[in-house]
C-alpha cells in the first residue's frame, strides 16, 4: 500500500495561550492511500473536519473527545478512512477524487490545567493518473506538400500534462517528432519522410501512458524514372548494345502507391511493366525507348527517354589480292571489302611472321626477290563487334625471268584482255572445279616480237611451266 505522509512539525506553545495554526500540503493519487497527520503527539481530544474546494463550510469527519473515536457519515464519501493507533492521524485508502480539499484537525492538549489548542490545516490534492491516450489524425494518407494535424486525446489525467509525439520508421527507428504541453500539433509541408508509425505519450506527475501506433502513409510521385540498361554500355549518343545480345531495360520511379510502367519504342507502346527485355536484339531495334511511370491514385505521371544504338558487324567478308608494283620487282598485297573491316598485318608467305601493315590503305609492299611459286599469303580482317576473323588467301604463281604482264580467265574465257597480275587469288571457300587459264605477255624489248604462252591448271594442282 502506497502512502503519502504528512511532514511532521514540532508543537509550538503560545505563551499567550492563543490557538496555533499550521499549514501543510499533501498529494495523493486516485485509488491509492494517503496519511493525514494531526501533530507529532497524541492529543487528549481532536476533531477532523473537511471543507470542499470552493466552499467555506466545515463538516466533521471523525473526532475523539476522550470517549473513543466517532467516524461521521461524511467519511464514507472520502474513501476508506481509519484512525491510526496511538495517534490522531488518519489513513484514507482507495482515495477518491472527491477527497480533494481542506482537512482541518483541531487538537487539544492539557485540558485539566491550561488547555492548548492547535489547528492543523492539511491541503489534500488528489491527482488522477493519465489514462491511455489515443491518437487522431486529420488525414492518414496526406498528399506530399499538404498540411494535416495530430491530436492526442485523454479521458483522464491531472495537469499539467506533457505530450510527446513519436515517429517510428519502417526499419524500427523511433524518434521524438514533436513535444509540448498542448495535445494537438499541426504538420505543414508533408513529405515522404513523414511516412511511418506514430504514437503519442502523455505524462503528468503521477504516470506516463502511450497510445497505440497509427500509420501515416504519404502519397507522392512518381519521380522522374531511372532506366538501368544491362549490359551497361554508354556512348556519346546514349546507350549501345551488340546485335544478338539480350538487352534488359529496367525502369524505376519513386511513388506511393507504386508506379505503373508503360514502355514506348519510337513513340509506339510496346510493353507494360517495369522491365523490358529484348532477346537477341537486332539492328532494327535501334531507336528511342521511353518509360512512362504513372501514379493511378493521384493521376500523375512522369517520363524518361533514352537512345539505344545496336551495333553489328558489316555484311560480307574482305577479299585480298597480290599484284606487281614498281615495274615488277615489288609485290603489293591489297585487301578490300566492307568499310568497317581493317585487316591485321598479313603474315609472311607460308609462315606466321608478319610482313607489314598499312592501316590507311590496307596495302603492304613486299620485295618479290626470293619468293617461290605457290607462296600463300593470308590476311586476317577482324571486326571489333565480331569474334570471328574473316580470312582471305592469295597464292603467288611466279616465273622469274623476263618482265611479264599476266591475266587470268576461267573455263577458257579471257578477262576482257585486261592486263592484270601473275597472281591467282582463291577465296577460302573455293567454287566447283574449273579450268583457269593464265595469259602471259612477255616483253623482250622494243624491237623483239611478243610471245604468248597459255598454261591451264586445275584447282588443287601445281602450276608447271610449259616446255620451250
What class do helices, strands and sheet pairing give?
Answer: mainly beta
Q: Classify the oligomer.
A: single chain
Provide the residue-averaged pLDDT. 78
DSSP strand tally: 35
Q: How many domains, in number, for the residues?
A: 4
Q: What proportion of the residues is helical, as a percent range?
A: under 10%
Q: How many strands, what sense, and barrel or not for the largest sheet?
A: 6 strands, mixed
Please mark out the parts with pLDDT under 50 across 5 or more consecutive residues, or reply none.
1-13, 339-353, 399-407, 414-420, 426-432, 441-459
Radius of gyration: 55 Å
Number of helices: 0
Fraction of residues in β-strands: over 45%
From the spread of the alpha carbons, the general shape counts as rod-shaped
Strand order of the largest sheet: 1-9-8-3-4-5
Our measurement of the CA-to-CA distance between the termini, rounded to an integer number of angstroms, reads 140 Å
Features:
single chain; 468 residues; mainly beta; Immunoglobulin-like; 6-stranded mixed β-sheet; 35 strands; 46% strand; disordered N terminus
Explain what the structure shows:
It is built from no helices and 35 strands. The protein is mostly beta strands. The chain has 4 domains: 20-127, Immunoglobulins (Immunoglobulin-like, Sandwich), CATH 2.60.40; 134-216, Immunoglobulin-like (Sandwich), CATH 2.60.40.10; 226-311, Immunoglobulins (Immunoglobulin-like), CATH 2.60.40.10; 319-458, no CATH class. It has a 6-stranded mixed β-sheet, with no helix packed on it. A 6-stranded mixed β-sheet has the order 19-20-26-25-22-23, with no helix packed on it.
